[in-house]
UniProtKB/TrEMBL annotation, chains A, B:
<dbReference type="InterPro" id="IPR011032">
    <property type="entry name" value="GroES-like_sf"/>
</dbReference>
<feature type="domain" description="Alcohol dehydrogenase-like C-terminal">
    <location>
        <begin position="189"/>
        <end position="306"/>
    </location>
</feature>
<dbReference type="InterPro" id="IPR013149">
    <property type="entry name" value="ADH-like_C"/>
</dbReference>
<feature type="domain" description="Oxidoreductase N-terminal">
    <location>
        <begin position="39"/>
        <end position="113"/>
    </location>
</feature>
<dbReference type="InterPro" id="IPR041694">
    <property type="entry name" value="ADH_N_2"/>
</dbReference>
<protein>
    <submittedName>
        <fullName>Zinc-type alcohol dehydrogenase-like protein PB24D3.08c</fullName>
    </submittedName>
</protein>
<keyword id="KW-0560">Oxidoreductase</keyword>
<dbReference type="InterPro" id="IPR045010">
    <property type="entry name" value="MDR_fam"/>
</dbReference>
<dbReference type="InterPro" id="IPR036291">
    <property type="entry name" value="NAD(P)-bd_dom_sf"/>
</dbReference>
<dbReference type="GO" id="GO:0016628">
    <property type="term" value="F:oxidoreductase activity, acting on the CH-CH group of donors, NAD or NADP as acceptor"/>
</dbReference>
<dbReference type="Pfam" id="PF16884">
    <property type="entry name" value="ADH_N_2"/>
</dbReference>
<dbReference type="Pfam" id="PF00107">
    <property type="entry name" value="ADH_zinc_N"/>
</dbReference>
Length: 369, 369
């Protein structure tokens, strides 16, 4: 018997701008799958429960001629992002029906795993040396929270964003109690964890976001100074509440310039993302004019990628973080959108200036068990 | 008996642009000194043998409202730079007539040391936290090279530039044999030492300067690829001979953008100076548009100041470098200008696009012993 297997397909590269639902990214109902009969070839069949629209997916949609740190998304196949799936059938040792797994998975309801069909071809000899083969990230079994926290936490503080925050903060910040950190996109999944890690370490935290609801959220997380950058100029806030010992960058461009300007001597700038630049052309990017201060202030500006620091830091993350979350010492919030058919719009919302209106990591609820 | 004591006085702040000899920086013969009778007050009397026009002096001439890493130069007093002096009379223990000292000293022939008259007022509570009190650097006795090398080496490889190159390279580069480094201003006093340190460590060296004579000089120092950036676009050379594992920046602006573009994953960019920006206004500075690559390529961009690293690295520098120089394993070149009256023009020459025409660290020969 065939069951409908809806999917969200990457239909056309958007060039610049935000991918338009129905044009670049399209929800389709035409596929189906035989849940009982589909061959597993030693793998396992999963049902997708939740999916995560992420800025990095936009970077993967870039034109083929543009190199970057991630491989390209494949046209005609479902989008790929972090997801939570449940196992229906398995031929793989160690994976059993009912197991929940978190990791990269295609935007469709049912999938024979490991998912290799829509993977981008990645030949290290052909790709730029800084390309990270995103598709190499594998699904990992996650334990049932048994009510201590909702499953959706695996998308925020206990998933890739939380690990990213932990790796960058523990690996690059050299944070000391009493120092001041500024976190841009402070209400994002990554930023909200950075705020809490910094507070736990005794730092003064300045945080910005693009909506008043997010400002409230950042305050609730412990930020000492929280502001809406759309209504309050960043430089004004940093002039009053800086100088900075640490800047956590999720944004790029003009925000980095402001952070450099109001950095203290020997400040550390941690470059984690540049959401302001993913959907624009190289020429539209903001030109930073004060990089001379990197030398004059003896700053350290450092980029990192969580999977590279994970071998050293992930064991601590997986040991410490779930406990802190279960105890309520580190909190998180997810913004749930119901239905895979709303996936394309949820994807676009992540990318618009200021991100989603609502605070909380956007998660698409695809199906219940 | 009074002896004429010529000096070069800082007469007027130049705002933007290169200080004009006779206008902003003026040679004067009107002062005199009683060499036998001038009170030493526990200090010592020196005769200036050589002086060093340096880019950092321009930064000190900036308008008072502009903060920076250095204190301001004082109007009406002689310029201050690194110099080599010989002691004529002394009341200070450990300093004897005939001793040679290297360090910060005023642009005049005879000076009662320590020179405090023309020091800028420096109150750490008032100055930005990244200000370094340049005037705090003291004259240090240097040994007679006894013909193993000329005294002028104390201005290049064995002086502040050599120490700067050593501290930055040993402290920030994490250089490994087989890696590729690009050194801008490779014929400068600092750059020429970086080239040799890198070659000694087994690196491939790309180096640029603004004159063909300097290209030849950089090749003689061991640079594998040397080019004149005025006639060959930097990006072309880096595209062909990169990517870079290390970039040594003496220039700032557009050159940094090119280095970021052609950096390998995990490259280190060492920010040592920004000669392209000292004499222009903030608005004229080049805006760097590819800082997003710092995150994507996981780069580390780091500023440093030699005096801050010196407590850790200077002992090795003073132990190793003079031996290497005496053995001819590390070489240097100085470009000597005779006569303090030519000091203002020598100062201006350092600051023009591409620096001096001639290769070699510019040194002003003020007097013989």
């Amino acid at each position: 018997m065939h069951t409908e297997n809806p999917r969200v397909v990457f239909k056309e590269r958007p060039g610049t701008g935000i991918p338009v639902p129905g044009e670049h990214v399209v929800f389709e109902r035409s596929h189906s799958i035989d849940l009982d009969g589909v061959p597993l070839n030693g793998g396992f069949l999963t049902k997708t429960l939740m999916l995560s629209p992420e800025p990095f997916m936009r970077e993967r949609m870039r034109d083929l001629c543009i190199p970057s740190y991630s491989t390209h998304a494949v046209l005609g196949d479902p989008l790929v992002s972090f997801g939570l799936v449940v196992v229906l059938r398995s031929e793989k040792e160690g994976i059993n029906p009912g197991d929940h797994l978190y990791g990269l998975t295609p935007w469709e309801v049912y999938t024979v795993q490991p998912y290799i069909h829509g993977r981008s071809k990645y030949d290290p000899a052909e790709a730029p040396d800084y390309t990270y083969d995103v598709d190499a990230l594998e699904l990992q079994i996650v334990p049932d929270p048994k009510g201590a926290f909702p499953w959706s936490r695996y998308f925020s503080v206990l998933g890739a964003p939380g690990l990213t925050a932990f790796c960058g903060f523990e690996g690059c910040a050299d944070a000391k109690a009493g120092e001041t950190i500024y976190v841009s996109s402070g209400a994002s999944a990554v930023g909200s964890v950075v705020i809490q890690l910094a507070k736990a370490k005794g730092l003064k935290v300045i945080a910005s976001a693009g909506a008043d609801s997010k400002v409230e959220y950042m305050r609730a997380l412990g930020a000492d100074v929280a502001f809406n950058y759309k209504t309050t100029p960043i430089v004004e806030v940093l002039r009053e509440h800086g100088p900075l010992d640490i800047y956590w960058d999720n944004v790029g461009g003009k925000t980095v310039e402001a952070a450099i300007e109001y950095s203290r001597v020997h400040a550390r700038l941690i470059m984690c993302g540049c959401i302001s630049e993913y959907a624009i052309g190289p020429e539209e990017r903001y030109g930073i004019k004060n990089t001379g201060l990197i030398f004059k202030k003896r700053l350290r500006v450092e980029g990192f990628l969580a999977p590279e620091l994970a071998p050293r830091l992930a064991p601590r993350f997986y040991a410490e973080m779930p406990v802190l979350v279960a105890e309520g010492k580190i909190t998180a919030k997810e913004h749930i959108t119901e239905g895979l058919e709303n996936g394309p719009a949820a994807m676009a919302a992540v990318l618009k200036e200021g991100g989603n209106e609502a605070a909380g990591k956007p998660v698409i609820l695809v199906a219940t068990e």
